[in-house]
Design brief:
Layout lengths: L3 H4 L11 H6 L3 H5 L5 H14 L4 H18 L2 H17 L3 H18 L2 H17 L3 H17 L3 H17 L3 H18 L2 H17 L3 H17 L3 H17 L3 H17 L3 H17 L3 H17 L3 H17 L3 H18 L2 H17 L3 H18 L2 H87 L1 H26 L1 H16 L4 H31 L9 E4 H18 L3 E5 L5 E4 L1 H17 L6 E8 L4 E8 L6 H5 L21 H11 L4 E6 L3 E9 L10
Parallel strand pairs: 2-4
Antiparallel strand pairs: 1-3, 4-5, 5-7, 6-7
Length: 728
């Protein structure tokens, strides 16, 4: 049977949830610095204390590092606390000589510093080691020293631990009644102060007492109360110990497979932590389980390992426990000679240990072995000793005390809960009074805070918007710079294409009228034509010259619009006046084709753009409408202002219209110009010029058309800015 907690071999350290945050405060350089500070050393010692139950090797490392750094700067408190933590690990792993050396030096330093808390902790650790070695008087003497210090300094936390460990020693000696006295003393203080980990430890200790008294259901109840707390605080060693205790209860109840499951859980943890005491104890339990399952070789193997560990590290309880286990196994297989040999050794260790439960088990195994060997008188004597010891374990005083303490514990728990509820009610009432008094002030503060917050937010928002705008501009600049080479290449390509188009247009469209004039002058020079023939040819030549002149005006203006200072010509002007001038200029041409030009422009419509650009656009749209209209067709020029401060100008005709494919290509580049209704020719570039000029005036142009119905060109330009006077 394992009672590691009760023996004091595994006193549970409190695992604080801030362990990870503590560890993060230590940078790698902090552990290597030549002149470490005391804060770093204190953190190392805190880590060592908290790591003990989850990873003893880490606890030892941090404790050693603390001692090393503390000696460099002669920080006595750091040295003493580091020694206390390394001593704890040393006795835990069976190195009692090293542990004694650590504790002695720590006690001397704590005394020189008048550090009573450190001194009491050292005494408690010393007592745990001596309890493991079954030197109970020494263990009790150190605990008595610690108890006096705690009482004088009103240190209830350490006093609770002290009472718990005194109870452990009395339990180890088989004095269950006294053990219960001290367990419950500690438990009442722990519950009063909500020392969660400590009262979980004591629950386990009481569970082991019940286990020894063979009150198994109640023992399991206490174990389960304890394990809930330890699983929540990640105290792996405590969980392993309780799993072993539960396994032992199931073993006693002959539930061997379930017992093995709990024991293997415990074994996994104690192996990882290199817990020699825990390993030895669990191996004995597993040996007993497999012996009852009739797997004798496996049982003996586990017991061999257990006894070897217990002998190497002088763990008296585990020595006696393993020897009794051997005796039980050999009795099961009726090898009474070996059973007798191990039972005798077990009894000797049990007497040294002073534990009644172990002594009673040794007496039982001796009784069986002696009976098997025919030593009936001795066997009867051992049977009487076994009965006497079992009666000692299950004495009425212990049961009565347990019942009394449980009643008192329930009363104390209810009293504590009621007191806590009353405190909570009082606190709520006080908070309500304070809230009522301060509500107006808080409300005013909230309003002021909101105003200030809104102001700060608005100011920061404006700043952020400015920063975002600046960042966006910079981003655009970067993107422009990034694509600059491609853009330049594309522009050069577009310019080359445009150059080729202009050269082609000039070569084709200017050559014809110039050739006509040259031919006419040649004829005049040679007297090849009469005066009447000359008069007949002049209107046609003039018509071609007029077309060429208009084309050159448009081309030259468009080329001029490509210059960087084009924006300087933007001004306020009247749409009505500009359109009227163009209508007057083409009125005669419209009459010759029998076309009606209609001006529906409002008198008060003012635009903000370059008037020459808009004039060229309107001229091109009118000449295009005239070109593709015939007798009785109507060309209507109208305009209006939209809600978004844009002026829409429309040139609508009832002419021949155009098919969709031609309409879709109209503003995308040079198109193959068709002849007009009277064989008028064109360059195919006029609409491209119009689109470019409108867009330079911050507008857009589009067209709708249906063959046989007519065409409608529309474009937008900005309305006049407020407060700007019209330029006559």
């Amino acid at each position: 049977m394992v009672f590691l907690l009760c023996c004091g071999l595994h006193s549970f350290a409190s695992l604080h949830p801030e362990l990870d945050s503590i560890k993060k405060t230590l940078s790698p350089s902090a552990l290597q610095q030549q002149n470490p500070d005391t804060a770093t050393i204190n953190t190392l010692n805190k880590l060592a204390a908290n790591y003990f139950k989850s990873n003893p090797d880490s606890a030892y490392y941090y404790g050693q590092k603390s001692i090393e750094l503390s000696r460099k700067i002669k920080y006595k408190a750091g040295i003493a606390n580091g020694l206390l933590e390394t001593g704890h690990v040393n006795y835990f792993k069976g190195n009692s000589a090293k542990a004694s050396k650590n504790f002695d030096e720590a006690i001397a330093i704590f005394k020189s510093l008048n550090d009573n808390k450190g001194l009491s902790k050292s005494y408690i650790s010393y007592s745990r080691m001596y309890n493991m070695l079954a030197e109970y008087p020494l263990a009790l003497s150190y605990l008595d020293k610690a108890r006096v210090i705690c009482l004088n300094n009103n240190d209830e936390a350490t006093l609770t631990d002290c009472y718990k460990n005194i109870g452990i020693i009395y339990f180890s000696r088989g004095q269950l009644s006294k053990a219960l006295d001290f367990y419950y003393k500690g438990l009442f203080i722990a519950l009063k102060n909500n020392y969660t980990t400590t009262y979980a430890e004591i629950y386990n200790d009481i569970g082991v007492v019940l286990q020894n008294m063979e009150v198994y259901p109640n023992a399991l109840e206490y174990f389960k109360k304890a394990i809930v707390v330890f699983e929540r605080t990640n105290n792996k060693q405590a969980v392993a110990t309780i799993n072993e205790n539960i396994g032992e209860v199931l073993l006693a109840q002959t539930q061997y497979d379930e017992a093995i499951g709990y024991l293997l859980k415990s074994l996994k943890t104690v192996k990882k932590q290199d817990d020699k005491d825990g390993l030895s104890s669990v191996y004995t339990d597993l040996g007993l389980c497999y012996a009852h399952k009739n797997q004798i070789k496996l049982a003996i193997a586990y017991l061999d390992t257990s006894l070897q560990i217990a002998n190497n590290f002088k763990i008296v309880y585990n020595q006696a426990y393993a020897l009794n286990g051997y005796a039980m196994v050999y009795n099961l297989v009726k090898d009474y000679k070996n059973a007798y040999k191990y039972a005798i050794q077990g009894k000797e260790h049990a007497i040294k240990l002073g534990n009644i439960s172990v002594r009673s088990n040794a007496a039982l195994q001796l009784n069986k072995a002696m009976a098997g060997l025919g030593m009936f008188e001795d066997a009867n004597s051992m049977l009487n000793e076994y009965i006497y010891l079992k009666n000692e374990i299950n004495d009425n005083e212990s049961i009565q005390k347990l019942t009394s303490y449980n009643y008192e514990l329930g009363f104390a728990e209810k009293k504590r809960q009621l007191a806590q509820q009353q405190r909570e009610r009082d606190l709520i009432y006080q908070q309500k009074i304070k809230s009522q008094r301060l509500i107006n002030t808080i409300f005013l503060v909230i309003i002021l805070a909101m105003i200030v917050t809104v102001g700060i937010y608005y100011r920061q928002k404006r700043k952020q918007q400015m920063i975002n705008a600046l960042l966006e501009d910079r981003n655009h600049e970067i993107l422009k710079q990034k694509t600059n080479i491609d853009d330049q290449a594309e522009k050069l390509n577009d310019l080359n294409v445009l150059k080729d188009r202009l050269i082609s247009i000039l070569a084709h469209d200017l050559r014809a009228p110039l050739s006509t004039l040259r031919g006419l002058f040649d004829l005049l020079q040679d007297d090849s034509i009469s005066h009447q023939e000359l008069l007949e040819m002049i209107p046609g030549v003039l018509k071609k010259l007029e077309y060429t002149s208009d084309f050159l005006d448009t081309l030259l203006f468009w080329i001029n619009s490509q210059m960087e200072n084009f924006e300087s010509s933007v001004k306020k002007f009247s749409i009505k006046e500009l359109v009227s001038l163009e209508i007057d200029a083409y009125h005669e041409q419209a009459e010759l084709k029998g076309i009606n030009l209609v001006d529906n422009i409002p008198d008060d419509l003012l635009a903000w753009a370059d008037p020459n650009s808009i004039r060229i656009v309107i001229r091109n749209l009118i000449t295009n409408a005239l070109k593709f209209s015939t007798v009785d067709d109507i060309i209507e020029i109208s305009a209006w202002q939209e809600e978004d401060q844009r002026i829409v100008v429309r040139v609508k005709d009832t002419g021949v219209g155009m098919p969709p494919d031609q309409r879709d290509r109209l503003f995308k580049g040079k198109v193959n110009s068709k002849t007009g209704t009277k064989n008028e020719s064109g360059t195919g570039m006029g609409m491209l010029f119009c689109k470019d000029l409108v867009e330079r005036c911050h507008g857009k142009i589009w067209v709708t058309s249906e063959p046989g119905i007519g065409t409608e060109f529309m474009f937008t330009i900005p309305a006049v800015a407020v407060g700007v006077e019209v330029v006559a």
